[in-house]
Amino acid sequence: MSDKFDKDPETAHISISTGLVSAAALPNGQLFLLHSDGQIRSLQFSTAKPLEGGVLVQQTVNTPWFQDAQTFNVATPVATPTAPIVKFLTIPPPTSQTRQSLLSVGMINNAAHLFVVDNTNHRVLNFVVKPANNSTPAASATASATPNSVGGGFIGPANNLPSASLEQQYVSANVVNGVKSSAFDARTNQVNLLAGASNSAATNQVAINVSSTTACHPTP
């Protein structure tokens, strides 16, 4: 097996509105970008002049209760829930107490999945993503100051944006804690995390089996 690329990598200039903190790409060239303000946007890298646009969510995604019921008591501080995800895919931006969140992607049963690590709410969101419907001619789009607009360019109407449907979210304040990296393993259908340990400088490797309903567990 060769460890060399078959051809030179493709390059493109893109315009983004805020700092970029994480990125992940599907085999078809669909690129997902996590911005420093918590917005998750997307662009089709294979186009001549790629413009990023929002990712539509198919249903409201509520913020879960992430406290451990077994260790919870009257002295446990209760965090104020963050706003639910509606219309466009966003997550809370980092603070001085929480790490940046992360993206990874994978194909499961020929369906594209986007995995979002939300460090603020100690969860990993598993979205099934669908590409943009490009059947609407670009000439029918009207320039407008909306979340679809970036860098002076307009990405098109809502049906020209990719969409995301939540399949499951995996929540644990103890397990999904201060995640530093995220990667999908197609051989095992697992999302592998390098997470922090509670009250310790150590790190834990965490495996999330996205085919299981009881998915989060530390890897021995």
Molecular structure report:
There is one protein chain. Residues 135-156 have low confidence and may be disordered. The chain has one domain (20-218). It is globular, with a radius of gyration of 18 Å. The chain is mainly β and 220 residues long. Strand 6 and strand 7 form a beta hairpin. The chain contains no helices and 15 strands.
Distinctive features:
mainly beta, five-stranded mixed beta sheet, 220 residues, four-stranded antiparallel beta sheet
What does this entry show, briefly?
It comes from Dictyobacter kobayashii. Helices cover 0% and strands 36% of the residues.
| Rg computed from alpha carbons, rounded to a whole number of angstroms | 18 Å
- Count of alpha and pi helical runs: 0
User: Mean of the pLDDT scores?
Assistant: 76
Largest sheet: 5 strands, mixed
* Terminal CA distance: 30 Å
Fraction in beta strands = 35-45%
Structural class: mainly beta
Could you give the order of strands across the largest sheet?
Answer: 5-11-8-7-6
How many structural domains are formed by the residues?
1
Share of helix, binned? under 10%
- How many beta-strand segments? 15
Gross geometry: globular
Give, in order, the helices and strands. Answer: EEEEEEEEEEEEEEE
Uncertain stretches of 5 or more adjacent residues: 135-156
Protein name: DUF4394 domain-containing protein
Organism: Dictyobacter kobayashii
